[in-house]
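[User]
If only I could read backbone structure tokens as easily as an amino acid sequence. I have put the entry right below:
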Amino acid sequence: MTPFSLRIFVADGDPDGLRIVEKSNWIGKALVFPRALLPQVKARPELAQTGVYLLLGPRPDGEGEMLYVGEGDPIRPRLESHYAQKDFWTRAIGFTTATAGQLNKAHVQFLEARLIALARAAKRMPLDNANQPAEPSLSEADRADMEVFLAHMLGMLPVLGVHAFEQAPAPTAKASPVLTCKGKGVLATGYEASQGFVVKAGSQAVAESVPSMAQHVRGMYDVRQELIANGVLTLEAGLYHFTQDYSFSSPSTAAAVVLGRSANGRIEWKDAQGRTLKALQEAEATQSV
């Protein structure tokens, strides 16, 4: 990964209001704003351009967020339509270019299709999009340019609080060692990463959670049920198996999904010598630089 800088301009002086975000060495820009400000923000010249946008807001059950990916030529009419017709979203992020005319309809259709495909593959957040749009036909040069544009967007989005498109990162040389979580006849492996805690593909999880899980740790229970529903966990020979590497927000959520009960991940995850994650972290904290 290459270091980069972002310039965030708080256009109205309100940190929760309109923010215009530009990335070093990139032709694009992002507008980030709450839904309530659309009547004022829609007059911005950026929204009169061709672009791609994200709508984010709470799921119907209130547990976490959901996402809609769209494109517009220009963006403004599409956002006005969603303002009137889509209830769930509370904030929007629109991507255009610093100079008008650098993106066309086919460009943003490509970006929309790629973003939806990435979100479906990552399975980090439910999508409000009903279908997977086909990628438009682009020249080899245009496709290469849009892949670069997309890479810049994907680098910015986690800084803006959007992790829906992130695949679990591969362990690095400086990463924590591979840890295991065992119990009830299952074995899972994982490691700490900048995104949280990654459970590796092929890890096992119990077939049934304890009855009290839904009552006492509802958020962790809902994560487990969602992973079953979207195919990250599939049932084989009486146990669930992870079909892909998956990033959890914490080692405790990861352990709870594996064991089907409330769990302290800092105790449940252990290295090959039987040392808990808690002990490893405490030892690292006391090491001299």
